[in-house]
Structures are given as structure tokens and as C-alpha cells.
Amino acid sequence: MRNVPLVDLKAQYREIKEELFNMWEEILEGMRLYLGPNVQTFEKEFGEYIGVADCIGVGNGTEAVHYAIRAAGVNSGEKVITVSHTFFATIEAIIHAGAEPVMVDINEDTYNISPDRILEYIETKCRFDGETLIDKSDGKVVRAILPVHLYGQSACMGRIMEIAKKYNLKVIEDAAQAQGAEYNGRKVGSIGDVAGFSFYFSKNLGAFGEAGGVTTNDPDIAYMVKRLREHGQKDKYHHEMFGFNGRLDELQAAVLRLKLKRLDKWNERRRMIARMYNDYLSDLPIKTPVEHEKAKHVYHLYVIRTERRDELFNYLRENGVGAGIHYPVPCHKQEPLKELNISLPITEKVADEIISLPIHPHMTDADVEYVCDTIRAFFAGG
Ligand SMILES: Cc1ncc(COP(=O)(O)O)c(C=O)c1O
To answer: Are the C-beta atoms of 100 and 140 separated by less than 8 Å?
Structure first.
């Protein structure tokens, strides 16, 4: 039996090990650990890569999305339209900002937020006075749309930006899973007002620990995020507001700089593996991922669907394939949100049918074939 893990970070580490040790040696000899040259250079390099004026390194992706929401001007008690089919951190970020999530359903083919469902909420539940969108049920202001580029594929940003413009809403991208993904030739993280990235170690661009970043073209938003990540400090020990301790650290920034140089190559390999999966699995009774015509998917996760999900998942695990489920319980069904008592039929159906297959840049063709042969054997009766 072969062992094919969901992700393999050791191979990535071996690729950058020598350069990394040299950089870490220099950092540790100099002991400049506080927002030093590697953080500053990474911010510049990642900002250029995404195509924005500013990137601000922060401690993790949850903070990145949280600060992005606050800096975009979402006030306490206001509403943010988003999805339930995401990692729980998206919702936590909204809650931490003092705002309230309005979760709408997803597109069944791409698993990303449905612009039709956003419009349905706005047109049936809200009123617009030409400047402000207000939820008629409680009179609360709806301030923003927060699309998540789930699994490495951009949400439908064209229509989302149109809706936002019409109803004067901010757009905050949760790009935690989509470093390098594009929509209509533009990198995600450069399309909305502001975006939050996670550089958690298993992401397409990941630190060897926790890290995150905020990208924006708006200087006021960038200024605010810089204050938020550092206790509201303008200058050392001069606090102009209450903030947080949410800085990116120098050792992680060095890792990110080395991996950023390889990100396009690694994403191309992920896309190649996805094409192999699509080909090998095309005649089986499963649904393979659909790429939106304007989106360039970077396959943070390769997610298939079958009604026999639990059986297939167990079979894969028993046969050495590190399958995952992202995510088995939608956010609106999680304990702290249960009382909302909302129904999102596509989200709920998808959560019961999805399986993530192993995908990472150092996976071999033989690994991909083994995963596909195992799935074939399952459908042939195991
Ligand atoms: C969609 C999404 N948003 C936010 C986050 C939070 O990022 P972090 O784990 O770096 O805090 C994640 C992390 O997995 C994520 O997948």
C-alpha cells in the first residue's frame, strides 16, 4: 500500500532548506526581530506580486480578515454578507469586528458565494436609500460583501463588484486559500477594497508557523491596518487607538520570501495535478471541480463530490490516501450560530458530499495515479 498525504510540507522544506538556514542565521545573529527588513521586503514583494499598493504582514489569516473588515469601515452592529460554506475563521473575523454575518448560499458548481443569492437577500430583505443599504427586519446597516475564494478559486468578482457599486457596499476578499489565483487576469486580493490572506503552513504560500497579510490599494485602509496590528501605535508608545498584537515576525517573513519565489511554479504543478485528476476520474460517478470561465484556480484543495462520501472517505483512508473534508459542518450549523436557525440548501447538501483529495506541488504522477486507482477500485466494488 502506498501512502499519499493530503499535503507534504517536508518536501517543500527540503527545497528551501539551505537558503532558509542562511537567512535565519543572519536574522538570529542580528537579532532584529521586530518588523525588520524581511517583513518589510516581504510586504513589498507580496504587494507587487498581487498588484496592490500596500501589503501589511500580520500574525495569521484570521487577524488579516478581521483587520480588513474593521479597516474597510464596517462598524460595530453592521452586517456583512458572506457564506456559510467556509472555514469558521471567516465568520469569527466578522464577529471579532463587532459585525454580524448574513450568510447566503453558494453556487453549486464552484462552491463560492452566489451573486444571485446576494441579490435575492438585498432585493427581498433590504431597502436602499441611495446611500445606505438597510436590513428591513432590524434596521441594521448592511456595509459589506465578504466573498471567500474557496479551495483556491476566485469568487465571481465581476458580478460581486457590480452589486457592491450599485448598493454602495465595501468588498472585503477572504483570500486565505487563494494565493496566486486570478479573476479576469487580475490576482485575487487586488479586486475588492481590501483582502485578507492566510499564510498558515499548509497554504499554497505558507510560513513554518502562523502568518497572514492584508492587501489593499487604499492608503487609509493600509494606515488603519498598520495601527490595528500594533496596539494602535503611530509611534512607539504613542497610541492613537485601541489595537491588537498582530504583527508578522521576521523568521516567518524569511520563509515566505523564499516560498513566494516558487509560488507560480508550485501553483502550476497543482494545476497540472488537477488536470490529471480530471482526466483519470472523468468516467467515474463523481463530480470533479469546475473552473469558472474567468477564474484561474490554484487548487489549494482539489474537491470532488459523491453521494457515497462517507464510504469513499473511509475506503481512501484505509488504503493510505490522506483524504480530507472541507468542511463537514457548515458555519450556520456550528454551536455558536445554531440559534440563527437558517437554511442554506446547497451549502448543506455540498457539506455532506465533498471530499478533498491529496494535492501539493511535490506530489508525483505515481501518487496521483494511486489515488485515482483507489477511487476506481472503490466504485468497482472495493
Ligand atoms: C477561508 C479561510 N479564511 C480564514 C482563514 C484563517 O486563516 P488562519 O488559519 O491563518 O488564521 C482560513 C484558514 O484556514 C481560511 O481557510
So the answer is: yes
176 pocket-lining for ligand 1 (C-beta < 6 Å): yes
Count of domains for the chain: 2
Same domain, 301 and 344: yes
148 lines ligand 1 (CB under 6 A): yes
- Considering the domain architecture, whether residues 226 and 365 belong to the same structural domain is answered as no
Its pTM surpasses 0.85:
yes
- The reply to whether ligand 1 has any atom less than 6 angstroms from the CB of 62 is yes
In a domain, 181, yes or no: yes
Strands 233-235 and 238-239, by their bridges, are: antiparallel
Rounded distance from Cα 61 to ligand 1 centre (Å): 5
Backbone angles phi, psi at 174, to 5 degrees: -95, 100
Cα of 87 to ligand 1 centre, how many Å?
A: 6
Does residue 50 have its Cβ closer than 6 Å to ligand 1? no
Asked if residue 173 has its Cβ within 6 Å of ligand 1, the reply is: no
Q: Whose CA is nearest to atom 12 of ligand 1?
A: 176
Q: Name the domain boundary from 260, 275, 293.
A: 260
Q: Confirm or reject: Cβ of 175 under 6 Å from ligand 1.
A: no
132 within some domain: yes
112 lines ligand 1 (CB under 6 A): no
Distances (CA, A) of 223 to 96, 103, 197, 216: 20, 29, 17, 10
How far, in Å, is the centroid of ligand 1 from the Cα of 199? Answer: 8
Check the CA dihedral 337-153-225-142 and report its sign: negative
On whether both 269 and 234 belong to a single domain, the answer is: no
220: cell is: 487609509
Per-residue pLDDT tens digits of the chain, which is 382 residues long: 899 999 999 999 999 999 999 999 999 999 999 899 999 999 999 999 999 999 999 999 999 999 999 999 999 999 999 999 999 999 999 999 999 999 999 999 999 999 999 999 999 999 999 999 999 999 999 999 999 999 999 999 999 999 999 999 999 999 999 999 999 999 999 999 999 999 999 999 999 999 999 999 999 999 999 999 999 999 999 999 999 999 999 999 999 999 999 999 999 999 999 999 999 999 999 999 999 999 999 999 999 999 999 999 999 999 999 999 999 999 999 999 999 999 999 999 999 999 999 999 999 999 999 999 999 999 999 7
Identify the residue whose cell numbers are 440559534.
Answer: 339
